[in-house]
């Protein structure tokens, strides 16, 4: 199944590999359709001849297909019985088995149709929830990131060839000390890689979403604010202090940038074991969050309760809720060092200014600009390893050309692992296991 499970107008089943055309023929009484031309065909169970559907079928002849193998697509009516009937019929055809998660993309990679970063881009595109996540995924799927790493790898290979020439023919007419002569170009390359690494993890944040945690004492209106921002009743609100215990997450799309807003238990000392577990979880989330929204009630402001004052660092945004309880509330952003917003959730006041501030923060945390960005820890670790190898090379180059060559070779390998040119076998299960089935 290439489409989602469950009832749908149309569902797509796809088959890849040398038996694909035979499978299609087994389900129809007519000859194979012309490659890449959609045809309507009645599908029958090959064993008992039962009519399964009138489907739209496509045949992609190898190598002109997504996987590079013969591919057949059955665009069937998306009902339970149709899908069960067709999948059941297919499963009884010899040589066919259900695809593994990511297996189509994996085969496309193994057949040389894309590098690993492009395959990862496909998965990111399927997972993308906001416009900018989509843009980043399309860029990576189109090969921009892979091309950058491949360019660096080629430059390293060239340097390596010169160093090896120096080792193999030390007395020939080569310019004196090749190992040193490649140093400036490798230094420039290393600097470029470090700049690429020093991206504030923007690409990874854009892919994963920025986390925004709501913190504060019980009853200040954290869950009310979450519901208002999410525009739905995601969390229970009540006037009983200690209502929220579990961590509650809602996904936000802020001008195309992804964020997760996280509601937590009100912070207080309590003997109640469930509530104190909630408080523990709240503090744990606070530690890992990208943005902390610290809520207080208007009556506790500007003189803040001590435990709350302790939560405020320069990263935190102070939100003063229940502004309607003030005599003459002035809503919106307040002057002062700490970013502070007076709001009223019940009166729907001051929220626009708060949202504008959040959107701006989220944007600056994951704005990647024009250049392709690192989107996962796998890339970051390999790049860092390449940089470390090059720095070792700069140390060792004078002393020993053979050791120096080995450092450059290891840096080349580290880059090659990102696009899947080397050490592929150990990587594939990791990369493709997070894909959808049918992708
Ligand atoms: N029905 C359907 N929709 C789909 C896909 C699919 O496989 N099937 N895709 C995939 O998941 C995406 C489209 N990507 C595709 C990429 C390449 C080829 C392909 O046949 N490539 C051949 C021929 C190119 C040509 O002649 O233009 C090739 O590259 O050799 C097909 C789909 C999104 N929509
Ligand atoms: N007057 C006033 N009351 C509010 C406002 N926002 C929330 N409340 C009320 O404050 C009470 C507590 O709201 P919650 O959203 O449950 O508070 P909380 O911070 O999630 O509380 P815990 O989950 O116990 O930590 C409810 O009765 C809300 O209706 C506001 O802007 N003004
Ligand atoms: Mg709550």
Automatic annotation (TrEMBL):
(6S)-5-formyl-5,6,7,8-tetrahydrofolate binds at residues 14, 73, 113, 439. GTP binds at residues 219-224, 238-244, 263-266. GO terms for biological process: tRNA methylation; tRNA wobble uridine modification. Its EC number is 3.6.-.-. Its cofactor is K(+). GO terms for cellular component: cytoplasm. K(+) binds at residues 219, 238, 240, 243. Residues 209-363 form the TrmE-type G domain. It is an enzyme of class 3 (hydrolase). InterPro entries: G_TrmE (IPR031168), GTP-bd (IPR006073), GTP-bd_TrmE_N (IPR018948), GTPase_MnmE (IPR004520), MnmE_dom2 (IPR027368), MnmE_helical (IPR025867), P-loop_NTPase (IPR027417), Small_GTP-bd (IPR005225). PROSITE patterns: G_TRME. It holds the Pfam family TrmE_N. Binds 1 potassium ion per subunit. Belongs to the TRAFAC class TrmE-Era-EngA-EngB-Septin-like GTPase superfamily. TrmE GTPase family. Exhibits a very high intrinsic GTPase hydrolysis rate. Involved in the addition of a carboxymethylaminomethyl (cmnm) group at the wobble position (U34) of certain tRNAs, forming tRNA-cmnm(5)s(2)U34. This is tRNA modification GTPase MnmE.
């Amino acid at each position: 199944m290439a489409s989602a499970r469950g009832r749908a107008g149309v569902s797509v089943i796809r088959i890849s590999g040398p038996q694909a055309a035979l499978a299609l023929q087994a389900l129809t009484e007519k000859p194979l359709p012309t490659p890449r031309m959609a045809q309507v065909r009645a599908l029958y169970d090959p064993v008992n001849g039962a009519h399964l559907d009138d489907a739209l079928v496509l045949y992609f002849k190898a190598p002109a297909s997504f996987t590079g193998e013969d591919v057949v697509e059955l665009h069937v009516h998306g009902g339970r019985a149709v899908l069960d009937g067709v999948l059941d019929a297919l499963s009884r055809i010899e040589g066919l088995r259900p695809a593994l998660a990511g297996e189509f993309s994996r085969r496309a990679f193994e057949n040389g149709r894309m590098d690993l970063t492009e395959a990862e881009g496909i998965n990111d595109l399927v997972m993308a929830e906001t416009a900018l996540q989509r843009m980043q995924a399309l860029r990576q799927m189109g090969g921009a990131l892979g091309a950058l790493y491949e360019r660096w790898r080629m430059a390293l290979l060239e340097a390596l060839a010169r160093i090896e020439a120096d080792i193999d023919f030390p007395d020939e007419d080569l310019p004196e000390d090749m190992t040193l002569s490649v140093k400036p170009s490798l230094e420039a390359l290393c600097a470029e890689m470090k700049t690429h690494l020093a991206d504030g993890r923007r690409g990874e944040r854009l892919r994963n979403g920025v986390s925004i945690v709501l913190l504060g004492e019980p009853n200040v209106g954290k869950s009310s604010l979450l519901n208002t921002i999410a525009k739905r009743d995601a969390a229970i609100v009540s006037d009983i202090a200690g209502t929220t215990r579990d961590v509650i997450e809602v996904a936000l799309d802020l001008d195309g940038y992804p964020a997760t807003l996280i509601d937590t238990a009100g912070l207080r000392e309590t003997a109640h074991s469930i509530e104190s577990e909630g408080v523990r979880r709240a503090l744990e989330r606070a530690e890992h969050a990208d943005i902390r929204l610290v809520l207080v009630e208007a009556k506790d402001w500007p003189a803040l309760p001590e435990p709350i004052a302790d939560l405020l660092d320069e990263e935190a945004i102070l939100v003063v809720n229940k502004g309607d309880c003030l005599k003459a509330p002035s809503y919106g952003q307040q002057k002062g060092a700490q970013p502070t917003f007076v709001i009223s959730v019940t009166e729907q006041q001051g929220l626009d200014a708060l949202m504008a501030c959040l959107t701006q923060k989220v944007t600056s945390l994951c704005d990647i600009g024009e250049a392709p960005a690192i989107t996962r820890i796998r890339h970051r670790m390999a790049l860092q390893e390449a940089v470390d190898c090059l720095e070792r090379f700069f140390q060792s180059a004078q002393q020993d050309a053979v050791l120096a060559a080995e450092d450059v070779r290891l840096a080349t390998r580290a880059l090659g692992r990102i696009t899947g040119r080397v050490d592929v076998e150990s990587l594939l299960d990791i990369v493709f296991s997070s894909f959808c089935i049918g992708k």
